[in-house]
Amino acid sequence: MSIIKSFSVGNGDMCYIKHNSDNFTIIDCNINTGNAKGIIEEIKEQSAQKSIMRFISTHPDEDHFGGIHLLDDEIKIHNFYVIKNKAIKKDITVSFERYCSLRDDCDKAFYISKGCTRKWMNKSDENRSSSGISVLWPELNNPFFIEALSACETGESYNNASAVIRYSLNNGASIMWLGDLETEFMENIANDIHLEKTTIVFCSTSW
Prior knowledge:
With 207 residues, the chain is of the alpha/beta class. Helix content is 25%, strand content 21%. The protein has helices at 36-47, 62-65, 68-75, 94-103, 143-153, 183-188; strands at 3-6, 15-18, 23-27, 29-30, 52-56, 80-82, 109-111, 133-137, 164-168, 174-177, 200-202.
């Protein structure tokens, strides 16, 4: 049985999936020196028997990668799933510097987009099963996404440069992460993204 946990980390998001396979997935983080110790200890404990660990970053906003340097220092992120971007920030934090380092590391980063496939994320082999994770967005040539990415890369706004991630396995409960996609943006791309009926959805508080 898979275990999915969402941490209470203020306005940001942080979840993990302990898969019923040899996989462990972390989606976003928003930790600080006050809560990092307990959260990281739990992640270490829950992932101890897993050979494959991945971190999925929905988008480059501080409350979705805050404290990633604290996490990386402890668990060593080797598989960093992220939308390819060149986001800039007016205020450079240690967390953002580490995010950029992971994002731009060709040995660690895997750039996600709609329908992408990856061994053990959504493809099985003779060694281990799929994690049941699908990337529903972004569609890289979509004009609304291109505009959102431009806003992200000029430091104007990061919300609509979010990925949409869905977890589902063996016809059981399903979970979807929408990052911080805004309502108007979602309406604009309604014909370009297939949103299946889903048990639990994590989305912006503006929804």
